Amino acid sequence: MDNKLMLMIPGPTPVPEAALLALAKHPIGHRTNEFSNIMAEVTANLKWLHQTENDVLMLNVSGTGAVEAGIINFLSPGDRVLVGSNGKFGERWVEIGEAYGLNVEAVTAEWGKPLDTALFAEKLQGDTEKQIKAVIITHSETSTGVLNDLETINRLVKEHGEALIIVDAVTSLGAFNLPIDSWGLDVVASGSQKGYMIPPGLGFVSVSPKAWEAYKTAKLPKYYLDLSKYRKSTAKNTTPFTPPVNLIVALHTTLRMMKNEGLESIFTRHQRLKNATRAAVKGLNLPLFGSDDYASPAITAVATPGMEADKIRSLMNKRFDIALAGGQDHLKNQIFRIGHLGFVSDRDILSCIAALEVTLTELGHENFTPGGGVAAAAQVFTQS
Amino acid sequence: MDNKLMLMIPGPTPVPEAALLALAKHPIGHRTNEFSNIMAEVTANLKWLHQTENDVLMLNVSGTGAVEAGIINFLSPGDRVLVGSNGKFGERWVEIGEAYGLNVEAVTAEWGKPLDTALFAEKLQGDTEKQIKAVIITHSETSTGVLNDLETINRLVKEHGEALIIVDAVTSLGAFNLPIDSWGLDVVASGSQKGYMIPPGLGFVSVSPKAWEAYKTAKLPKYYLDLSKYRKSTAKNTTPFTPPVNLIVALHTTLRMMKNEGLESIFTRHQRLKNATRAAVKGLNLPLFGSDDYASPAITAVATPGMEADKIRSLMNKRFDIALAGGQDHLKNQIFRIGHLGFVSDRDILSCIAALEVTLTELGHENFTPGGGVAAAAQVFTQS
């Protein structure tokens, strides 16, 4: 059915009508009081959302651009960095480190498994000469639905004392409790089309005082991604370059919505959506890709042994106008991924699972009790 | 009056209702056939607009990001480059070159004057060892309303044979005839909130085969701004990173509008808007900042001797909801700038000039015949 699309992918995520209408307002000039007033409120609310007094800077880039800025502003060629890599995005941060001539040590785990904190302990504790300048971690690995144990790895980084912790929080920020100040996270990067409930186009980077100290001696070249320019402008409620005005006006709207909902409620809701989705998948007798013990609050990956995952996605789209994400790289056609990030309600999960039941039945997967998926999700919802 | 703003600044420029409504459509997934179909048409139409068979790549960045990508993809540390600098943007490209460790030679002219082509001739002809790797030119210098003589400088670069010509066409593309293929321009960068008639958030870079040759040996580090990634993806009607889907859907709409209007008509319209604006300013007995001989089709800068330019802007905004741009840096409060770029009609110029007459009168500038500004603009419109 036309114009009936329901996005259950990890980004772009669903956008509330109020934000779409804000997006459609005619742009205003960005060198005006009116825009500065919006910037002031947006910046304050971003700090609230990030649970930090650190600078939270907004760039006109995708999530990848935000993470790249978060890396290159604080390091110099040849710097030794540890990069956690257990999925598509971890691999990307390795590539970025290499593109910039860093001395990258990838700490890998199989796709679908979490990073092994013991490996980080070993490397960080063994680094008595304090050569490791940064540890780069993907919090929620979007490609597999794995939530890495950032809290433990961060504690190890703190014990090391020298290294910065740089976090890709692209699909965890606004979905999972990530208390930047109380954990002492140095650099946290994220993107607008995720927990922020607006379309893609803005990246966010929070920067700690310790990271700003590192900035002073960091030698990697940068200009458009130079965060000090954004810091200077943000302090004056403006931007160094022409910003995507419409997106910022939409963000102004969604941040108010988030404040109304409250951080606690937002995190609880994502937890509930995750639990219901996972329960439902079990109810459908499909194997979850990755254990409940390290499951992302943003996305659930489902394995489809004996079935083509892309056929399921294709029929879900055709019959019910529900967009699911596929597997990436070697997981192509092996898994599908259900996004439950941002502007997603309990009802959306029920719709998605109910439609999935019909789809699976039509494709001949009958190894489940009809209604079993929905019933399992319903049970989570009635309990919480 | 609320919601009555009329943008006469050089960006963001006015956005047609159809594009605003397209912007407000719920985002779709970017890894879908539906999006790829849009990408295919957008890419084809971008080539049409750029008058080129070269790659035209779309990045989620501002105009500055696009120019930076246009520079850093084709050069290595220490490379000698000539950078034309006769305004705020020329100065910025000098800064970018320096930030990346290029051997930058700024070829300067006073703000408000065009670049001196003889200086380029001297340097390029004197470079018998072909050390100059690139010449970077701002075509329309937004800060002053000066249109540099790109055609002549490009011819000198062609005679040199080795250097690439890299063009900041941010406020000339879609306003002025810039035939990339017939002139042989290597790299041309621009931004969405200008001639493209959509809000800010997208940058564009066209790349010639000669520039791709230079890319192969270029050593400046890059990842998010690595144009080869965009080239590879664009060839498959997709994007390397999550794109600003809504802006691309809006661009899909405005490029169709531009095709309907036709290139010739678009350029003629901008020429007419420029001529009418300049005639009107003369009719108001205000000095134009910069001569008619090198006037930008996108923006007209007006000097205000004996008056505070910002008072004029402020009253125009308060009384008539017309946003004009101010002077930058040392020109602050010395000039104001009237944008006539993109979705601007003859009527808009008449409105602006009529309102300006009232404003000037209210501020005590009475050294003109009432109606003289509008009459002068009208004369241009009746003649053309």
UniProtKB/TrEMBL annotation, chains A, B:
EC number: 1.12.-.-
Cofactor(s) needed for function: pyridoxal 5'-phosphate
GO biological process terms, semicolon-separated: glycine biosynthetic process, by transamination of glyoxylate
Gene3D superfamilies (alphabetical): Aspartate Aminotransferase, domain 1, Type I PLP-dependent aspartate aminotransferase-like (Major domain)
Entry keywords, A to Z: Aminotransferase, Oxidoreductase, Pyridoxal phosphate, Transferase
Membrane-traversing stretches: none
GO molecular function list: alanine-glyoxylate transaminase activity; L-serine-pyruvate transaminase activity; oxidoreductase activity
Domain spans labelled Aminotransferase class V: 28-329
Annotated positions of the N6-(pyridoxal phosphate)lysine modification: K194
Binding-site list for substrate: R337
Pfam families listed in its UniProt record: Aminotran_5
Family matches, as SUPFAM superfamilies: PLP-dependent transferases
InterPro entries: Aminotrans_V_dom, Aminotrans_V_PyrdxlP_BS, PyrdxlP-dep_Trfase, PyrdxlP-dep_Trfase_major, PyrdxlP-dep_Trfase_small, SP_NH2Trfase/AEP_transaminase
UniProt similarity note: Belongs to the class-V pyridoxal-phosphate-dependent aminotransferase family.
Protein name (database record): Soluble hydrogenase 42 kDa subunit
Species of provenance: Nodularia spumigena UHCC 0039
